[in-house]
Fold this protein.
Amino acid sequence: MFYVKIILIIFYTIIFSILALISGLIDKTYYTYKLLTKGYSAGILFISGVKVKTSGLKNIQGEGPFIFVSNHISQFDIIALQFTIPLKTGFVFKKELAKIPLFGWQLLTGPHIVIDRSNAENALKSIHKARHKMKAKGVSMILFPEGTRSRDGELQQFKRGAFHLASQVSYPIIPVTINDSDKLLPKGSLKINKGTINVNFSEPVLTTKIETRNDELELMGKVRDIISANYYGKL
């Protein structure tokens, strides 16, 4: 059954990557890309035997844009968020993913932002690109301020990038807490376990008065406290 799931996921990913690549090249509003993303996420969750339980969806009011700031404990996190957030969303991904045929190419044509973590200047340019897509295209951004998935389930220290972006666009941050996805697909493993991912959307945090680096750091601490209060993994 394990190999059947993997084969189905690979096949499904190839088909949707082709469709998303075409969509990203043709529809620059990203509306059809959003629909494809929803379909892809729903299919992957179904094949994997994974359900998503949400709370706090009422806190997503209107069309945004918002900055969704979430903890990161599994590869399923992005799938779960794309499935549950009812808006056009993009996320920041490392440049190495862009090299993957079809899948990486469609990421480049979609509403996402590629980042080079080894180059601070290029990383800053990525923030400016994210700002442009949010303002020009109405795209909400999903950001994982820990920078990478947690290996042991512990909530890691946050990096400042997401909060610097918030200071640039002044759009509200919605703190997101993901629980249990690490039990379904642990880091370093390909084995997919059936189960339920719990996703909590907290009330928006306003960012209109973020002007200095200290303001950004204070905002970062506030958002991390909200996420940690709803997280029942390791703190």
Observations:
- The chain has a mean pLDDT of 90.
